[in-house]
Design a protein that fits this description.
heterodimer, A: mainly alpha, 434 Repressor (Amino-terminal Domain), 2 strands, B: 0% strand
């Protein structure tokens, strides 16, 4: 998927562990892991809002668009 | 009190009974009918019907395990639909000898079509569920 989740980068900057963040935003560590590992298909605005609140950042800090390699 | 698990159990038993009856017919038929055309047509139809019953049994087993939206179920439905189509083709060929079989061929062909539509619906449902499961 061309949308990349850079959650681990922001978490490292804020020195926040996965367990702590999962607890703060109210999702399970398993779901946070899906999000961190770019396995998620979509993210709810409410989850994004909680993440931004917990990590004191903007959505653009977490999400990035990367063009896919296309082979003709 | 009648409930969902009892309904599943009843369906499972219906399939087992149908399988048993179908196998018994396959064993005893040569003792009653010695016409090669009848036997040839029966054994041609026997295989796809057996496969369809196996597919239904497999699907029901998955439902009992709680695995409804699984790829195994779509492949089982695919098997059922193809088995129905093959049985319909054999019966259609048989209708050249016994025209009444054209109705059976039509009915089984319709069942195959029905299974195919359900299979396509289940495939879409699995995609929707996957997307829902991976929405955080």
């Amino acid at each position: 998927m061309p949308i990349v989740v850079n959650l681990d980068v922001v978490m490292a900057k804020r020195k926040m562990s996965s367990g702590e963040l999962a607890e703060k935003i109210g999702i399970t560590p398993a779901n946070l892991s899906i999000l961190k590992n770019n396995k998620a298909k979509a993210i709810r605005f409410s989850t994004l809002e909680e993440i931004c609140k917990a990590l004191d950042c903007q959505p653009a800090d977490i999400l990035a668009y990367e063009e896919e390699d296309t082979h003709d | 009190m009648w409930n969902h698990s009892k309904s599943l159990l009843l369906t499972a038993w219906w399939i087992r009974i149908a399988l048993a009856v179908w196998l018994i017919i396959a064993v005893v038929l040569p003792f009653f009918y010695r016409k090669p055309a009848v036997l040839a047509l029966f054994y041609l139809v026997f295989v796809p019907v057996l496969l369809a019953l196996y597919g239904l049994h497999k699907m029901l087993h998955n439902i009992q395990k709680g695995q409804i939206f699984s790829k195994e179920n779509t492949s089982a439905l695919r098997l059922v639909s193809w088995a129905c189509f093959f049985a319909a083709v054999f019966l259609l060929a048989g209708s050249c000898i016994w025209p009444i079989l054209i109705f059976a061929a039509g009915a089984i062909g319709f069942l195959g079509l029905f299974a195919r539509v359900i299979k396509n619906m289940l495939t879409e449902a699995i995609l929707i569920k996957e997307e829902n499961d991976f929405t955080i």
